[in-house]
Specification:
α2 packs antiparallel against α3, α2 packs antiparallel against α5 and α4 runs parallel beside α6. The protein has a single domain, classed as Four Helix Bundle (Hemerythrin (Met), subunit A) (Up-down Bundle), CATH 1.20.120. It is 79% helix and 0% strand. It comes from Kutzneria chonburiensis. InterPro entries: Cyclodeamin/CycHdrlase, Formintransfe-cycloase-like_sf.
Length: 202
């Protein structure tokens, strides 16, 4: 997807193809949030009024660029993970042996499909923290973009949580389900923190 135009990617999203889907959208929300953090840093660096904040801005600029690339990687990984699930469901099930193998493959694929949005939510929380970090020294003319970066990070977390929950619902491993339930609670806390930060910027 790195080589696609936005228009082409949106066409793919709107098509009848199962991927890209919601997990990729979650990751792209994170990518856009990271992009806005970078933009705010770029529009703050080099301006005398904000000279004392320049070291922070330069540090965050590098981190936000890395986050953006990771988000794109996760969007691609989500499509692959979803394909893994659909492929597992298509496995033969005529014999008991085939049914056992198919069930194991489905569970492994679901675990992978839940892991990708989970990583997206973790990344989105990192991006939210970067937005918090630059808020005190950001160019006042682009403070609204700090807020939108936080909104994008929040959307990424919420969308990722939906995808984690959907995959968790079909998992049979009790331990794995419990772990994901804990992670979903953590994401909920991060979303609440994001909402508080956004309100402070409004």
């Amino acid at each position: 997807m790195r080589e696609q135009t936005i228009g082409r990617w949106l066409d793919d999203l709107a098509s009848g193809a199962p991927a890209p889907g919601g997990g990729a959208v979650a990751a792209m929300h994170a990518a856009m949030g990271a992009g806005l953090v970078s933009m705010v840093c770029e529009l703050t660096i080099g301006r005398p009024r904000y000279a004392q904040h320049e070291p922070t801005m330069r540090e965050v600029l590098a981190q936000a660029g890395e986050c953006r690339q990771r988000a794109i990687d996760l969007a691609e990984a989500d499509a692959l993970a979803f394909t893994g699930v659909t492929d597992a469901y298509r496995l033969p099930k005529a014999t008991e042996e085939e049914r056992t193998a198919r069930s194991a493959a489905i569970q492994a694929a679901l675990a992978q499909a839940a892991d990708v949005p989970l990583r997206t939510a973790v990344l989105a929380a990192e991006i939210l923290e970067l937005a918090r970090k630059i808020r005190p020294g950001a160019n006042v003319n682009v403070l609204s973009d700090v807020a939108v970066a936080a909104v994008s990070a929040r959307a990424a977390m919420q969308a990722a949580a939906v995808n984690v929950a959907v995959n968790r619902a079909s998992m049979t491993d009790v331990v794995a389900r419990a772990r994901l339930e804990t992670e979903l609670a953590r994401i909920s806390d991060e979303v609440a923190a994001a909402e508080k930060f956004i309100e402070e910027l409004a």
